[in-house]
Fold this sequence. Notes:
The protein contains three helices and 16 strands. The chain is mainly β and about 300 residues long. The chain has a 16-stranded mixed beta sheet that branches. Strand 2 and strand 3 form a beta hairpin.
Amino acid sequence: MMRLRGALALGLLVSAAAHAEYELIDTALQKRTDAVLAVMGYTVVPDLTTSTLSISSTDTGNPQMTMSQLAGGFTISQNTPLYLEGGAAYSRYDPSFVVSDGTDTREVPLKWTSVMLTGGVGWDFPVIDKLKFRPIANFAYGHLESDLSAFSRLLEFKSQAEKDFIDGGSMDALGYGGSVMLDYEDYLPEREIDVEWRYSYVRLENYDSTSDFVDGSSNAISTNIWARWRAPTGWALMERPLRYVLEFAHSTFWGDQKEAIGFDDLTSLGVGIEFDSSKYDIIISRTRLVFRYRFGEDVEGTAVGFAVSF
Length: 310
């Protein structure tokens, strides 16, 4: 009898939800679209602090945001100081929308899944010994899809546009902008020093979506400083010195990313080892494995980074 009553209650709840008309409250869909683009903006340029990121809810422990980026850049040669960079990123963001039919208010879980492809072309100009100035033209392409939970699909929305946006909606975005970088490299047999400072501005704009009304934009503006120290451990591996690695990175987000997910800057501290395989006839010359501790306002965590040099 208790199971029957429970089934009847659930059936009445589903029936009521299906016949009531709900609408989003507090925030316009235009702002939701801009928020989507703001989250995508964390990966428009290579950034060590956001290359691997997972933020969990303090209430449930469930990941509300996961982000992973594979990116890199290089200068072709000293004689041809053309700089090229590129990356691919994946992110999943699980916000909650609040909807109401005038009397009943409830939270609707939503999942945003996006992919981002980025690229950059620059040129190295020598400033002083070991220091280069590097302007970069950046471009990006992003695709996002939204997905409601099975129960939330039973809700009837007053606006078809709202329903299209949060249930099975998709959006494509294009990004364009530029960066300026100061790159300092000081390599000696007893130690190697790399320091980079970068300012980036990339504008993301929606150019295609499942609903014509979803027409948003976001300005991804950030500054970043990154430093790395490498030195021999005194041991040899593969007939080359085995190096230890110390690393520091700090990013500040100034544009629409500012506090978009609860913070406006991130710091990363890393320590690791580097294997040198340059003695062998293979494309990879060095391989690094780095353990990183990251922290910012109300967030902290750890990551393991893997990188190769060619």
